Amino acid sequence: MKFSKLMGVILAACTLFTACDGKKDGSGKTLTVGVSADYAPFEFFHNGEIIGFDIDLMTEVAKRLGKDVKFKDMSFDAILGSLSTQRIDAAISSITPTPERRKTIDFSKEYIQSNRVMLCKGTSSINSVSDLAEGTVGVQSGSTHETYANKVLNKDVHVTVKSLTRVPDLLQAMEIGNVSCLVMDNAEANAILKSQANLKSISLPGEVNSSAIAFPKNSPLTPQVDKILEEIEADGTMAKLKEKWLPAS
Predict the structure, then answer these.
(1) Residue 50's closest CA among 29, 71, 34?
(2) Which residue pairs, CB below 8 angstroms and at least 24 apart, start in 145-148?
(3) Which domains does the chain have, with CATH numbers?
(4) Any idea which of 2-6, 70-74, 131-135 has the lowest mean pLDDT?
(5) How confident is the model at residue 12 (pLDDT cuts 50, 70, 90)?
(6) What is the model's pTM?
(7) What are the residues whose beta carbons fall under 8 Å from the beta carbon of 46, sequence distance 6 or more?
(8) How far apart are CA 45 and CA 124, in angstroms?
(9) Is the peptide bond before 41 cis (omega within 30 degrees of 0)?
(10) Using CA atoms in the order 233, 47, 176, 190, what is the torsion angle rounded to 10 degrees?
(11) Which run of H or E residues covers position 120?
């Protein structure tokens, strides 16, 4: 094989599998970070750019690691699989570190907590969990809200759970009457209420949700990021990010 052809094969392989500056173990100069950019105020598109609390936080983490960061938008239910197969270096998308998820991926220390709520039409007769009986709730596929709706809500009051990949699709499903309410974090509900005043938020019982940055199993980045998150908390950077993005939560 001629040298030029050989180099072409090598370059094609690099493009197909990873950037040639390192394996997907965080050793490269650029971190590829998975997000589901439909979850304001944490990660969402604005004028063609992904912005939000998680985006600012991960950008700061990468900066302190001495690395660039590239965000890769994907469906939430695809993020965990991409971590398990090391197609991305990390993920930040309001991901709750559940025991089941810890079996296949690693997590940083938790960096934020939030309460779970129902988001319903303002004209809806639903004002509490008991009013939801025999109704249909919408949840994002692969989220802990999906697990909550199936295992907790369905135990308290019988509901039908409709899972969709993207939050905008869930909002559309509620608009046309395919679901009664949506289950989500209070911060996201507050962000939606700012632009859609015809909706209402209803508190839900249950545990407080926490979020952490996720990594492939045994990633060397995990302890490094834990240390950086402690620094970000101690020097006031985390408080500034919360003030910027989560003033009402």
Answers:
(1) 71
(2) 145/116, 145/183, 145/184, 145/185, 147/98, 148/116, 148/183, 148/204, 148/206
(3) 19-113+209-245 (3.40.190.10), 116-203 (3.40.190.10)
(4) 2-6
(5) very low
(6) 0.80
(7) none
(8) 29
(9) yes
(10) 30
(11) strand 116-121
The predicted pLDDT at position 156 comes to: 79
Say what percent of the chain tops pLDDT 70. 88
pLDDT tens digits for range 49-62: 999 999 999 999 99
The pair of three-digit structure tokens given for residue 243, joined into one six-digit string = 């003030």
**pLDDT category, 26, cuts 50, 70, 90?**
low
C-alpha distance from residue 229 to each of 57, 157, 222, 247 (Å): 9, 39, 11, 20
Specify the amino acid at residue 159. Answer: V
Neighbours of 81 (CB within 10 A): 14
User: 3-class DSSP state for residue 101?
Assistant: helix
**Nearest one of 215, 163, 232, 191 to 51, comparing CA atoms:** 191
Spatial CA neighbour of 95 closest among 6, 13, 211: 211
Q: For residue 25, what pLDDT band results from cuts at 50, 70 and 90?
A: low
Q: How far is CA 46 from CA 38, 40, 41, 51, 52, in A?
A: 10, 10, 11, 7, 9
Write the CA distances from 58 to 33, 89, 100, 214, 237, integer angstroms: 8, 12, 24, 11, 12
For 11-30, what is the mean pLDDT? 53
- The owner of tokens 């971190």 is 31
Coarse DSSP helix, strand, coil percentages of the chain, rounded to the nearest 5 percent: 40, 25, 35
- Please give the angle made by the CA atoms of 21, 23 and 28, to the nearest 5 degrees: 40
